[in-house]
């Protein structure tokens, strides 16, 4: 029973982290003289309620339904409407990894919050929260490598990454080797 409650709490926290780390999208595949229609419901026949231009950026996805995405620019309580998600792509990763950054993975669920150049916190549903001293932090272009505690390492690389469960896209992928020897891979945003 305790393990089930702990797992449910971890899943809830993962949803919060995913919302915080949700990527930003831009319109793609729309001709320069055309627009991407925003619909009232997730179907092509739904009433048009707005449009995005062919170069619009700063779009967030709040929910998905099949190939459709409920989108907006800032407030999930007041979304713009539904668009076909094939016309959205993750905005390119920033020129360099900025801290704090949150990384996560599924199967198993885990989260690594790199809070500063000196501190990282690892959590998962099975073990107690672990704090690590970041022993080194190096940036190479848009990528970063850091030591975690005694013998651990995290390598963050720019490039689209999917968490494998929610269809969310993130601007970075990560490979983690915990000091205990456990190897993980996931996404950061």
Key terms:
189 residues; mainly beta; SH3 type barrels; three-stranded antiparallel sheet
Topology:
Elements: H1 2-20, E1 25-27, E2 36-39, E3 48-52, E4 60-65, E5 68-72, E6 81-84, E7 88-90, E8 101-105, E9 110-114, E10 119-123, E11 130-140, E12 143-148, E13 152-162, E14 169-177, E15 183-188
Antiparallel strand pairs: 1-7, 2-3, 4-5, 5-6, 8-9, 8-15, 9-10, 10-11, 11-12, 12-13, 13-14, 14-15
Structural features, described:
- This protein has 1 helix and 15 strands, in the order H-E-E-E-E-E-E-E-E-E-E-E-E-E-E-E.
- The protein has one helix spanning 2-20; strands spanning 25-27, 36-39, 48-52, 60-65, 68-72, 81-84, 88-90, 101-105, 110-114, 119-123, 130-140, 143-148, 152-162, 169-177, 183-188.
- The two termini are 32 Å apart.
What's a concise summary of this model?
The protein has one helix and 15 strands, in the order αβββββββββββββββ. It has 189 residues and is mainly beta.
Q: How many helical stretches?
A: 1
Please bin the fraction of helical residues. 10-25%
Number of beta strands:
15
Shape: elongated
Radius of gyration: 18 Å
% residues in beta strands: over 45%
């Amino acid at each position: 029973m305790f393990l089930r409650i702990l797992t449910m709490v971890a899943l809830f926290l993962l949803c919060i982290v995913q919302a915080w780390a949700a990527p930003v999208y831009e319109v793609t595949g729309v001709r320069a003289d055309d627009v991407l229609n925003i619909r009232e419901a997730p179907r092509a026949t739904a009433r048009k309620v707005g449009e995005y231009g062919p170069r619009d950026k700063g779009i967030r996805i709040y929910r998905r339904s099949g190939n459709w995405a409920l989108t907006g620019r800032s407030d999930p309580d007041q979304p713009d409407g539904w668009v076909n998600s094939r016309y959205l792509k993750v905005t390119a990763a920033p020129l360099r990894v900025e801290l704090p950054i949150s990384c996560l993975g599924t199967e198993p669920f885990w989260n690594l919050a790199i809070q500063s150049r000196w501190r990282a916190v690892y959590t998962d549903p099975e073990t107690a929260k672990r704090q690590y001293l970041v022993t080194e932090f190096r940036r190479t272009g848009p990528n970063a490598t850091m030591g975690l505690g005694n013998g651990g390492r995290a390598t963050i690389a720019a490039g689209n990454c999917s968490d494998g469960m929610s269809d969310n896209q993130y601007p970075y992928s990560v490979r983690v080797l915990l000091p205990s020897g456990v190897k993980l891979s996931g996404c950061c945003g």
